[in-house]
Amino acid sequence: AIDPARLWDSILDTARIGGTAKGGIKRLTLTELDAEVRRWFIAACEAAGCAVTIDDMGNIFARRPGKDNGLPPIAIGSHLDTQPTGGKFDGIIGVLSGLELLRTLQDAGYETTHPIEVINWTNEEGSRFAPAMLSSGVFAGKFTKDWAYAREDRDGIRFGDALRDIGFIGDEACGAHPLAAHFELHIEQGPILEAEAKTIGVVTGVQGMRWYEVTVTGVDSHAGSTPMYLRQDALVATARMIEVVQQIALEHAPNAVGTVGLIEARPNSRNVIPGETFFTVDFRDPDDSVLSAMEQKLTERLATVAASSGVAADLTCIWNSPAVHFDADCVTAVRAAAVQAGFPHRDIISGAGHDSAYVASVAPTTMIFVPCAGGISHNEIESAEPGDVAAGATVLLQAVLAMDAK
Amino acid sequence: AIDPARLWDSILDTARIGGTAKGGIKRLTLTELDAEVRRWFIAACEAAGCAVTIDDMGNIFARRPGKDNGLPPIAIGSHLDTQPTGGKFDGIIGVLSGLELLRTLQDAGYETTHPIEVINWTNEEGSRFAPAMLSSGVFAGKFTKDWAYAREDRDGIRFGDALRDIGFIGDEACGAHPLAAHFELHIEQGPILEAEAKTIGVVTGVQGMRWYEVTVTGVDSHAGSTPMYLRQDALVATARMIEVVQQIALEHAPNAVGTVGLIEARPNSRNVIPGETFFTVDFRDPDDSVLSAMEQKLTERLATVAASSGVAADLTCIWNSPAVHFDADCVTAVRAAAVQAGFPHRDIISGAGHDSAYVASVAPTTMIFVPCAGGISHNEIESAEPGDVAAGATVLLQAVLAMDAK
Ligand SMILES: NC(=O)NCCC(=O)O
Ligand SMILES: NC(=O)NCCC(=O)O
């Protein structure tokens, strides 16, 4: 059995790395803080008897040998990077429950048949470098390494350069690494489990998601001396486009969501009519055909708003992650573990993207959700109960052992 | 008579300091580039026989003695700072035509009765540190020096610290400096003179302007897993508020203008519903009572949008610069100079704010406008014809000599 107190201590311990005044974490991918938590993680895994390897996307693999080391490992993976105003749980409990599992096996002197591997995936959040799940995506062959290396943050720093600068370009070629299975424990990040008083979400899949970038071009001009009728105000047009995104999502209620999370105006000066804006759109729905309908509406309506607002708009889809259905055997193992432990549970589809969504295309994969307070995530006040996290780690351990015994 | 080629050369010469690829200038106030153009200006004025003094707001006064140095000087003032995407003319021709006038008087060995002073006012643009016309405002007693020093840019750097860091806190107390008159040559920054084929705008006043800051508070949350009905999206609310600003201005057509020039979203991450935004509002109208009506609408409608969007909005008026009427004698001198030189001219009210608007409350003041292409300003493509700039400088010289002779 796992040690709930030790797991909780690890969570609080790493939460100091990038910890914020409001109790959250700001630990953006490939920053010095990310490097610090990576070093902590490697040392902890080595202390638990693992050999650590790193691939050329900075993904970290900590392997505990099994009886048959010719078998591919059963993996437990998630991420230690956070949003700019992130919480202490998103991704982190997935990695640290893997570490807790390693420690539990070591303490018990338990020998698995397969090797067991705990993985820290690089840049799951996609906040600094779009898209999300970048390195599990390269691992699964969705993106090339070169494409990933060329991704730029909003300051124009390339992913490959940032990875080199923190010293985490490993020797192994990303993807050259078969897995027998992949499990991921995560907070739900939504309101369903809490509302229904369930401890465990048996995750059957991940909804589809598409990301867009929009550049709106008007004309910079003086805010005081340019009459209203002569303006080509990129920000007024953008305001109307933000309303369009909101409306499209509402038209596909109750499942679809649509968000403008990032906006920049240029020159961003109080007395200058903005001549250019850049903003992003995030659309999600469990049904890819709904996403296609939403995309078509977006294309048409942004063009209409641009024309009526006297500006030009350039819309690009930069990421399309289709809906994912998890492996039936893995899902069954998680459900059985929840039943056996007597935890209230339900099947659930993930609203958030996860590394497991990509890994699912190259290895049998599923996830385990536990509730978070108010369903709030990507927020410094993100909160989960120690008992729920421990329940999730218990289900994780039992599901892994069940797969190992198959 | 002034030397049009020498004036134009000075414009092109200083345009290299902070010059941009698109042919504009990025020379934000109190940056190292601002310091560089200040040093250029001081050297040029000293070479033209002036004594230079600096006050504790960094305003630079270059004085050419007159016959009666007990009289207060007749001043020619404007600014050398620019917007982030500024042009080569806004403010700059006001200072450099003053320099050209000094050189012309020196070459001719002409002795004025009053001393003549050319002034470079600090932070006219108000882009880095709000509000605009900050240092002419302290000069005129509208703001205290302490209040001005405490103004912060968007990185939290204080005006007083930035002024010290570029080495331009002078010995003279700002304001302890009587002026017999103040003239300012400027591009119109609007479309009227060009549309009517007038070379000279005889500026009779400046419209009223008010600046506001708005902070909208919602709740950061996950863009994928937070259902639409649970969101408190600060950016969606802000989009509606931007539309409100636009509508209020249109309701007071044709004179009123309203602009949201600066916006920031937090945490500004593609997959996070923005929990907070900050944006600015710039309202202008020649009639202060219209501005009061606009302000009341803004207050009411932002509250309505906030309530219906599930967010809180905090609106603060940070600047109120009432409409200004320039001195009748100065205006008459400018109009007479335009007539005498045979330049097509018309009376005009300034849509932009200028240092002259504040100086007008402590000294007889007016301005001279010349056309700019398409009325476009606060844009790197801002453009003015050498002949028009020379015409403006000619009118400036004649108006100054007329006031000196009174
Ligand atoms: N789990 C999680 O928050 N992932 C970030 C990617 C996304 O869903 O936006
Ligand atoms: N002339 C000019 O552009 N001044 C800046 C202040 C303003 O009008 O916004």
TrEMBL record, chains A, B:
* NCBIfam families xref list: hydantase, PRK09290.1-3, PRK09290.1-5, PRK12891.1
**Swiss-Prot/TrEMBL keywords:** Hydrolase, Metal-binding, Zinc
- Keyword Transcription regulation assigned: no
Give me the residues that bind Zn(2+) 2, please: 90, 125, 378
The record's InterPro entries line, in alphabetical order, gives: Amidase_Cbmase, Bact_exopeptidase_dim_dom, Peptidase_M20, Peptidase_M20_dimer
CDD domains cross-referenced by the UniProt entry: M20_bAS (cd03884)
One MF term in GO for this entry? Answer: hydrolase activity, acting on carbon-nitrogen (but not peptide) bonds, in linear amidines
List of residues binding Zn(2+) 1: 79, 90, 186
Family to which this protein belongs: Belongs to the peptidase M20 family.
Specify the species.
Acidisoma silvae
Q: What is this protein called?
A: Zn-dependent hydrolase
**Domain Peptidase M20 dimerisation: where?**
205-306
Q: Tell me if Translocase is a UniProt keyword of this record.
A: no
Q: Which superkingdom, per the lineage?
A: Bacteria
Pfam families listed in its UniProt record: M20_dimer, Peptidase_M20
Cofactor dependence: Zn(2+)
> Cofactor comment in the record?
Binds 2 Zn(2+) ions per subunit.
